[in-house]
């Protein structure tokens, strides 16, 4: 007869996913173990695990991020300029007691990134007019009470053609599948693996030069979240990690170039590119999106 085991043994791997033995981790003293994990992740990976009060702060910033995206979606019109989107985001952010993180970040001149069609990311709002059939990515990052949350969505203008429909659907599903990999015991590499497999199975490509990132205390923290790669690579996920997943998916080849403005990445082959991003917290049981919207 098999011994039924609903509790881990002292020598089993700790259920918190730390990769250490239970007796050296959460056994007996979960509080000390969590403190210990914090120190270990800081030293080994430069990852700053978030405490309950930090998570509440990022969750509040995340709520504002999603409200900002909803507000933009409701006001987006054919004929609008990308500068008008910038003004909407800037004013909404300030009115809600926050600061737009992109503004003056490493010299970025505006309060939001708006990337159209073959633009992959870091589009700078200007006088360009949004046209019927465009796909428009809006990437929003407020700082609220010192906490950052980062999310983006790609919108259709008018009725999308088959190419626009396809790339937006694939990019959205890539984020969903990436999020599904998030739980203690899995690694950052598992996220990238799931995304790359889906994108390439659907004859699309994954941008490599830009990655997801730790977020919360700062705009971009460790670790990097690659949107491609091998299962089991990277950092083991543990509760308290907060990072973005933000796959940039191209309809053609993955290669990019940067425009003269030194910021905007576009596909070399001119193919459409789409992206979805959320800020994700690793929990004991899996994950919680701190910028939740339906995918
Ligand atoms: N929001 C982007 C990201 O997802 C970063 C934009 S940096 C900026 O990481 F300066 F362009 F705003
Ligand atoms: Co990001
Ligand atoms: Co972003």
Structure at a glance:
The chain is an alpha+beta fold and 295 residues long. It has helices at residues 30-45, 52-75, 82-95, 162-180, 188-201, and strands at residues 99-100, 113-116, 119-121, 135-140, 142-144, 147-148, 151-156, 205-206, 212-214, 221-225, 242-245, 248-250, 256-258, 265-267, 273-275, 278-282, 287-289.
Structural features:
295 residues; alpha+beta; three-stranded antiparallel β-sheet; binds 2-amino-4-trifluoromethylsulfanyl-butyric acid; binds cobalt (II) ion
Q: How far is the first residue's CA from the last residue's CA?
A: 46 Å
Gyration radius from CA atoms, angstroms: 20 Å
H/E series: HHHEEEEEEEHHEEEEEEEEEE
Bound compounds, each kind once, are: 2-amino-4-trifluoromethylsulfanyl-butyric acid, cobalt (II) ion
Query: Order of strands side by side in the largest beta sheet?
Result: 1-5-6
Mean pLDDT: 96
Number of E strands: 17
| Class derived from helix and strand content | alpha+beta
What portion of residues belong to β-strands? 15-25%
- Biggest β-sheet description: 3 strands, antiparallel
Write the layout of secondary structure elements.
Layout: H1 30-45, H2 52-75, H3 82-95, E1 99-100, E2 113-116, E3 119-121, E4 135-140, E5 142-144, E6 147-148, E7 151-156, H4 162-180, H5 188-201, E8 205-206, E9 212-214, E10 221-225, E11 242-245, E12 248-250, E13 256-258, E14 265-267, E15 273-275, E16 278-282, E17 287-289
Helix pairs in contact: 2-3, 4-5
The structure holds 2-amino-4-trifluoromethylsulfanyl-butyric acid (MF3) and cobalt (II) ion (2 copies).
Residues 150, 213, 244, 246, 277 line the site of one cobalt (II) ion.
């Amino acid at each position: 007869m098999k011994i039924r085991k609903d509790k881990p043994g002292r020598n089993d791997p700790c259920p918190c996913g730390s990769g250490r033995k239970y007796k050296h981790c959460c056994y007996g003293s979960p509080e000390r173990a969590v403190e210990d994990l914090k120190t270990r992740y800081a030293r080994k990976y430069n990852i700053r695990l978030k405490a309950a009060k930090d998570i509440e702060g990022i969750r509040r910033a995340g709520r504002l991020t999603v409200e900002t995206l909803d507000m933009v979606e409701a006001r987006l019109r054919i004929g609008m300029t990308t500068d008008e989107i910038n003004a909407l985001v800037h004013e909404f952010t300030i009115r809600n007691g926050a600061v737009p993180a992109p503004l003056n970040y490493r010299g970025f001149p505006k309060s939001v990134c708006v990337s159209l069609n073959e633009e992959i990311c870091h589009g700078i709002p200007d006088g360009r007019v949004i046209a019927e059939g465009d796909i428009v990515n809006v990437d929003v990052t407020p700082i609220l009470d010192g906490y950052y949350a980062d999310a983006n969505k790609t919108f259709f203008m008018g009725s999308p053609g088959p190419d626009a429909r396809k790339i937006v659907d694939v990019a959205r599903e890539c984020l969903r599948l990436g999020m599904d990999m998030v739980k203690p015991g899995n690694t950052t590499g598992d996220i990238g693996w799931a995304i790359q497999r889906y994108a390439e199975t659907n004859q699309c490509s994954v941008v490599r030069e830009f990655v997801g990132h730790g977020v919360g205390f700062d705009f971009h923290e460790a670790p990097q979240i690659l949107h491609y790669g091998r299962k089991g690579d990277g950092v083991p996920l543990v509760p308290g990690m907060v990072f973005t997943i933000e796959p940039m998916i191209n309809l053609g080849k993955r290669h990019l170039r940067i425009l003269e403005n030194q910021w905007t990445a576009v596909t070399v082959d001119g193919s459409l590119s789409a992206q979805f991003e959320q800020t994700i917290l690793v929990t004991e049981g899996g994950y919680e999106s701190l910028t939740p919207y339906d995918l």
